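for the record, two folds in this file. i put them one after another cuz i was lazy. first one right below, seq on top, structure tokens after. the second one comes after a little note so u can tell where it starts
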Amino acid sequence: MRVVIIEDEKPNATRLKNILLDISPAITIEAVLDTVTDSVAWFKQHPHPDVTLMDIRLADGLSFDIFPLVTLSCPVIFTTAYDEYAIRAFKVNSIDYLLKPIEKDDLQQALERIHQQQIRTGPTEMVQQLLEFFKQKEVSYRSRFMLPFRDGYKTVLVDDVDFIFYAFNVTHLVLKDKTQVALTQTMDELEEQLDPKQFFRANRQHIINISSIDNIQNYFSGKLKIRLKRDLEREVLVSKEKVPVFKQWLDK
């Protein structure tokens, strides 16, 4: 079986590759892609695989944006980190859906369904339905965090969050008063839970509040460097691929 992985988080892509090869050494990973742009270019230039594993959120947009630009001739298994995109109702024919972290048994069952049903065509009308569902679904974003405090807990409003960073395998919440708190949630989970109008995933290590930005400077290789108001020593870099998305986010 020939497989293409579309995933912009390298650890997740590596995990998928390892699981696939553990399921069967006969599986061939044709390509690992991380943007809508690269995915469209690859599909236009190469024979399509037997199945594509496709993360919903990519560095330069939603994976749904691929379909108007190229006609896929293979089934797709969508993946995402947070159940806000609960699209299990669309598990028909050439579309499946797995929640991260992907488990071997779940992925194996999805691949077996494709093999047993001998699905060879890509999603068409169903993708449009998914896109409409995704756009129209009323999302309830996180408004507060309940955090350990002394012998109990305290509530922190999302509006009081300055930025979030990931270091040494721990996610840290930084408040506007510079208090830091360790969180149990992953960066992927928080990216889905927080209002995208207010928060932006600048890179794998940082999610920033729009109100935390002090200034933005051009950086090497088409990147941008963000300086934060309350942590002037910290440099937050935005990759070249994410720069257009970042500018669009700011210009609303």
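(here's the note) second protein begins now
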Amino acid sequence: MQEQETRLLMLVDDEPAQCRLVSAIASRAGWRTVFARDAETAIAMLGTQDGMMLDAIILDQWVPGADSASLISELKSRRATLPILLMTSIGSNEAAIDAMRAGASDYIIKPVAPERLIAALSMAADKSKKLGELHPLTEKITQPLAFEEIIGSAPALRTALAIAAKAARSRASIFIEGEHGVGKEVVADAIEAASPRAKLPYLKVNCGAISSNLLDSALFGHEKDAFAGAFDRRIGIFQQAEGGTVFLDEVDLLPPETQIRLVRLLTQGEISPLGAAHSYRIDVRILSASNASLANKLADGQFREDLYYRLNVVQLTIPPLRERTSDIPALARHFLGRMASQPGLRSLGITDEALAMLRGYNWPGNVRQLQSVLFRAAVLCERDALTPEEFPQISAAVGVPGNGGSGGAGTNDGIGVTLYENDGNMRPLEEIEADVIRLAIGHYRGRMTEVARRLGIGRSTLYRKLADLGISDAA
């Protein structure tokens, strides 16, 4: 097996506990960490031997000695190509936007989730791929959506949502399968919101973000002195969610001991906290999700068969974005509309050329990656609309900037009429109207009565417009 390459990380933070946590997580992925307690030390460290070998920098939002955006600008002025990640608190979108405008590659919400940090570091340091705008800015715009608000017309998605809406009203456990970033949590939130338990507790657990030796305690709780370091009694997540719902993400990563405990909960409705002499009866509904195929895990002996069938009473499969590229224009406009309400951002359009180009990309990170790419483009855009120029890495990956490639959009996706000039400004209304009429004439094969009816105007009005705009009825 190939030996893992060691990379060097500088962590700018003055909180010892957080420094220990971040460096421990980073070490799992082969990173060695050096520390700077304040802005002055961080800048000085760039000139040291370690500083010359850095692969990435992580800095806390509240770094002593400077505001984070100013420090990022200073660090980027000295080392322009060095990836910088910001650690920020929930709800600090404005600080994150300022940091990205100053040159940050990504930001991470505290408390830091191990798999999120490792993924961000991995992408930041992958110099073989120019992914400057593809970092998974996952913690953005988290308002839950109802089923009818979930964007997408692809048959596979609509089928999954129809099943989810029907199953939401039952007590059945629901398992959601799909690649990373397809929107499994969005669907889980919609299920919970449509269920009879909607007003009761709803707790979420990422099973891959908690170490296996702590996961049992987090889920089921423990009694005082149940194990070394258990100084107080802890109420587990399942008890906290009594009467409500628990969403277990990355359920395929549950360790064997936890799987056994979960089977008991699902079969008997009972849990036994670590160190407890008795069990508790609880009523909780479980939604679960996985990026990997649970069926494959079952076949490989990595997942219990009895647990598999109890979690998988209803199965939903969310298709990847590359299989529903026709949804990209609607998704893009939806995300841009929601981003416009965020502090520091404004309302932006997106050109037809940019949408066609986005459709031509493969989207390995799915809907979450699309949202991240749009967020970064919106932060940096100085025009009134996003053009292919705002997506340089996507352009390079697709091939020719503005070319939709194999995923190019057709008129059925609403991209048949260009609304924007190449500089991002709107085209004159007269030109847009002329294009719409030409498109309608071609679509209805010159049947002018049908063209007029579909455009909602009379035949005489249509012929007058043809004359005024200089359009032949042969289009």
